[in-house]
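Hi U.,

Before I forget, here's the chain from the pilot set. I'm dumping it here mostly so it's searchable later in email.
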Amino acid sequence: MRLRDFRPDDVADLVAAGDDPLARWFLPGLPAPDTEARARWWVAEGVPGLRAAGGVAYAVADSGTDRLLGGVALGNPVPQRRQAEIGCWVLPGARRRGVGTTATRLLAGHAFATGTARLELLAVADDPASQRVALAAGFRPEGVRRDAAATPDGGRQDLLAFVRLAGDPDGPVRRLLPDLPAGRLTDGVVTLRRLAPGDADEMYALHSRPEVVANQAPPVPPERHVIALRCRLAESQWLTGTAARLAILDAGTGRFAGSCGLVYAEPGTGQASIGYALAPGFRGRGLATRAVRLLAGWAFGPVGAARLVAGTVPDNTASHRVLHRVGFHREALLRGRLPGLAGTRLDDLTFALLPTDLTGDPPG
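Structure:
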């Protein structure tokens, strides 16, 4: 592929790009439906206007056919900081081919070569495709800009800031939480995969059960929209290293059996924490033990953690049995560590696992 100027013969492809539902959600300023007039304005006036304001926009084209694949631009320059914002879009038929990553790298390299010191790439929180482009192009997660962008329905949404400096390496950013091999972990009996938006109903039903709520801190039932947001942002949180949230599936039927997760809050010390919950119909079969064992193996392997901890309320004996079967050792009772109801405090019984503790035998 190559970067070139936009031309009048790109108009049809520009209209197709503007009518893509995904683009319409993340670029709410587009007319609905998109029009040739808007596309012609972009080629004749929009791009020159961006240049006049200190930015630039290029078409991303197939180097063989010269057909439009997408676009990439620099905008919102801050000259006194030698800073600009970079963004790209890709036509639906050209996605999953590295077009966005390559175009972003090309334009970033040009910007740094001509004096830019800092580039920002802003992505909507539930747009993991753009976040993957940012990470693959060498941009590091830097923070959240709350309610910084509009949505087509008149609401507001967060933007995640990814930043690359002129002195940063050109290669992809090393992620704290790598993707699962082949997208899942399985031992043939249970399967773990990343939590997805479609899991919201079953997650809400599970985490609203009284016995599950009782083992949370504080023991308060979740709100439906909070669970839905957790499922919708699971991939984004995984990419930025916040948390790895997984669904536990019955490998034989594919049915949702529970959830588990890993938070790698102390990469400097190598310590990560885990949690898990199982739906009633799947309890008593050793599935939680298998799921925790799979999660621990991934944490000690591709993630590179050196120590896992799990906190429980002292009377959650079922969870204690799961941890013992995997190889966790009881370490400490932390008095009053967790928030309870009405200003009360709860004790936290902590278990820990080292790589040499992990047992390989399936549960009896």
